[in-house]
Amino acid sequence: MRITGRSTSAACLAAAAAILAATFTLAPTSTAAPTSPVAVSAQPANSSNVQLDGNRIVLGDAAASIGAAELRQRSGLAELKPVRFGTPTSAVVVGYTTGTPDGSTAEVDVRAWLNDRWSEWTAVRSGTPTALPGASDQVQVRVILLAPPTGAKPWVGDVTVQPTDKAVAPRMSLQAAPVTSHVFATREGLVGGTTANGHVIVSRDHFVALPSRRGLSGNGSGTYSVKVCTASRCAFEPVWDVGPWNTKDDYWNPSSTREMWQDLPQGKPEAQAAYQNGYNGGKDQFGRTVANPAGIDLADGVFWDALKLADNGWVDVTYLWTGDGGRGTVSISSGYLNVRNAPNSSGAVVGMAGKSAQVTVECQTTGESVTGSQGTSNVWLRVNAGMYVAKAWVNAASFGAC
User: Fold this and answer.
1) How far apart are CA 64 and CA 67, in angstroms?
2) Rounded distance between C-alpha atoms, residue 279 and residue 285, angstroms
3) What is the pLDDT of residues 53-72, one digit of tens each?
4) CB 180: neighbour CB atoms within 10 A?
């Protein structure tokens, strides 16, 4: 738990069954009005607590819960089907309508497929050109619905998307190498609660929370993963929750493209600046007094088992989606994959990698033969200095020899 403590009696928010996708007809020029969706149909992943009402995506009926940001609210998330264009475009126009009664909110985001990976999500305004971080022929739209514990049911409808050649200032960026920050980590706990992407937290769970939805993976996905290291151990985990403290603090991004707090240096969480330097009057974005400098929350399995932490403390976090480099995806049905100090199952465990997490790959070597989800293989991947995982459990290409 955080130094300030938090309720352990948060109600378990049941995952909703309504999952959405959309296919769009594209307008031929930037001057054409957004077209209507050709179809809206079900898609079985990466959405939670939403319902389909005609052409509207509506917040579902799951109860309110408290996640890493310690805000009691009802939330829903819907990732729509990716849209392919005939040719790459550097900007898009997303159109939509919304209803946000009684203090509720509705946000629409977009991301682009670039360099064989998805860029971060960035918020869009209906009918306004949004620059992509580079020319891409595939984009995806996401809807986030938030509401007070009772009452309001916000919605988003009439979603359209089209390429545009209108010049706009980019709000997203790609960097040459993944960013690493030295930040304060806290334990999330909240077993039985529900994360911002709809995951129900289990005992000794494996995921992390970061204080921005720009790097939030869908439930069960590791699109946005981090490497968290102490002096002697490392964990590779998906980002499945939002917090601690803030929800619009993508501090790993350059100041010029940061969603809030653009006067802070890249890599410094707002909570850290508030706690250590009295920034923003010592308060977070919600006006709460910041009682610790946390920039990441760790699920219990990451905190206790993967990193062997006894108390909240400082760690090095690498945000794997922010740059290029060798990658693999952990392919297990549940739990975690051991990271060992030698390419065999008798090597000491020096970390763990959670389900669906991405892992960095420096090189590969031969070792003990292992049978896993990817077949039988004697190849082991070096994921950090002196740290290895069996390729039999990792979906990855081939790499140079260590």
Assistant:
1) 10
2) 11
3) 888 999 999 999 989 999 99
4) 17
Residues 181 and 227 sit within 8 Å (Cβ to Cβ): no
Distance in angstroms (rounded) separating the CA atoms of residues 115 and 177 = 13
8 A C-beta contact, residue 35 and residue 324? no
Q: What DSSP character marks residue 191?
A: T
DSSP characters over 245-294: S-SB--TTS-GGG-SS-TTSPTT--HHHHHHHH-GGGGB-TTSPBP-S-E
The answer on pLDDT for 25 being more than 90 is no
Maximum CA pair distance of the chain?
63
Q: pLDDT tens digit string along 69-118?
A: 999 999 999 999 888 888 999 999 999 999 999 999 999 999 999 988 99
Residue type, 160: T
316 is written with which tokens?
């090095």
Inter-CA distances, 254 with 34, 74, 90, 249, 303, Å: 31, 31, 20, 11, 28
* Structure tokens, 157: 């409808």
